[in-house]
Amino acid sequence: MKMQLKGVSGSLRELGLLAFIILLGITVQIRNPVFLSLMNINAILTNTAILSILAVGMMLVLVTRGIDLSVGAIIAFTGMVTALTVAKYPGINPVAALLLGAGVGFVIGSLTGLLVAVFDILPIIATLGMMNVVRGFTYVVSGGKWVSSYQMSTSFKALATGKILGINNLIVIAIVVYIIAAYFINQTRMGRRIFAVGSNPEAAEISGLPRKRLVFTAYAIMGALAGLAGVLWVAKFASAQGNTAIGYELQVIAACILGGVSISGGIGKLSGLLLGTLLLGILNNALPLINISPFWQQGIQGITILAAVLTNVVVKRNNERAALRRRAI
Amino acid sequence: MIADKKSVANLDTQRVFSLKEFFLQWEWVLVGLLVVVIIINSFISPYFLSFKTFLNTPMTFLDKSFIVFPMILVIILGQIDISVASTTALSAVIMAVSYNAGVPMALSMALCLLTGTVCGAINGLLLIKFKELSAVIVTLSTMIIYRGIAYIILGDQASGGFPEWFSFFGWSTVLGIPFITIIFVVSAVLFGILLHKTVLGRTIYGMGFNKTACTYSGIKVDKVIFIVFTLAGLMSAITAIFLTSRMGSTRPNVAMGYELEVITMVALGGVSTSGGIGRIGGPILAVFIIGFLSYGMGLANIQAPVVLVAIGLLLIFSVLLLKFRRKQF
Lengths: 329, 329
Hints:
The structure holds 2 protein chains of 2 kinds. By secondary structure, chain A is mostly helical.
């Protein structure tokens, strides 16, 4: 019964989100016809690709009732490490660079996972600490300097600008991540167990699920994806700086919440994530198109997030009330 | 499981004084840490160990300490507030803008305090009205919104040109003691009384231990949450006044990352991040430990990023250490 209800409210949410996106799209399109041009759509998708990759990792963490605030710092650090490596060995294969970034991210994510899962530190505190440490190390390894475009090889920058079958690499990589994630979440034992642990940690532990290991895995995956995103970020903007992606974790969390991932654990769908990231991507892209000052962006984003969260609660309450009423008859 | 972790020894109602327990308190570890920091600092600079330095150095770091007090209450409640730095920024921006629009300075300062209070009250109201939402998510969204509004008002401009006497708050001394230190001591005493000597204080501990039990015992849980979060807003505005006075002007990106430093101080001060445990003395010591640590690292020409790493590590290790200590009892 409860599962069914969850399903109904979930798809209702997504339909609502979709309707909102379409409405927003039409409004913007009327004010500026450039919006729905093929070029602009491509730009929106390219710009949201990195966000959507990160959202997958964040969803897994949120599902375990955690949160990861160190994402922006991991992006900066892995981006910086990769950029320095590329600057020193220009001949390095771009795929190797990607793996290097993901590997470094995985190690950092594992550390966070250790703190949260094994040492039982509250996720918000542990990741707040990691955020500082990792961000600080970004400045330390770079000596406070930037790695700029001319220091990077063309093949490395092509990671973000190149195309496969006419589709930008970033979009392709995001699609691959989503396919693997869909398989992992829906088909593998570990994926299902992460959701089980999130929706009821006590029950999961009593039924013999390795709670600690699963929570650890979620953070490690988040770290690896953040590392991957760090490399793509540096390739896309062709520059690595100490303050890269500062505060970006908020965007990622926002995308998850917009996409219907519950911060109290156990609930989250990839389809929702896609819509959530798309909405944020469109907001970022459309506001300048309809001549809204960039300084409004943060405020509008914040209000959208709050509105989405509150709507979610109201819809859920109404559902529960309706269910009670049905039972009364 | 949770109950035995939060050892009952912390309910100090019927505690018998024991010398062993007295010296086993976390505060002694902090005192030791503070002494170590001061000794290291005096090795770095021969001028450090003077009465004048001790009197004047705190001027440079006490501004954020005003947020530490309400944050102690928030964290003992088992909640968290990460919107405080944004509240500081918004209050500062409102004060500067209204002064430059012709409002008298005294009234602008009142507006600043009002803004902070309203920001905090909004957090409180959201938490009361939407109990399904965690404080993390509510204050995360308002954190984005408050700073977003600051950007909408001021863009990337700075605003200042305050009257001469306004610099009094950040720079002047009364009978040789910096004014900010006096207000700090007054706030410490007030919050100490509030936390340890009033019914409200006891209620906050109770709610941190077991909120449901408090609700059923007829305690007005909502009122307590509202008061505590409103206080957090008000104190953030007081930080805004001192910070703006010291800097002479303000920008929307002011006080960035203060929430992290404040939470670090509270956690280092021995307040358990899972609620119910902590006293006012620990965080006050932590304010000076972190303050003198950053000051000393500045003296030694150590770059700011390393300080970032140090603060992050301090946060993680203090939480870890506290965890192991509690497990022993």
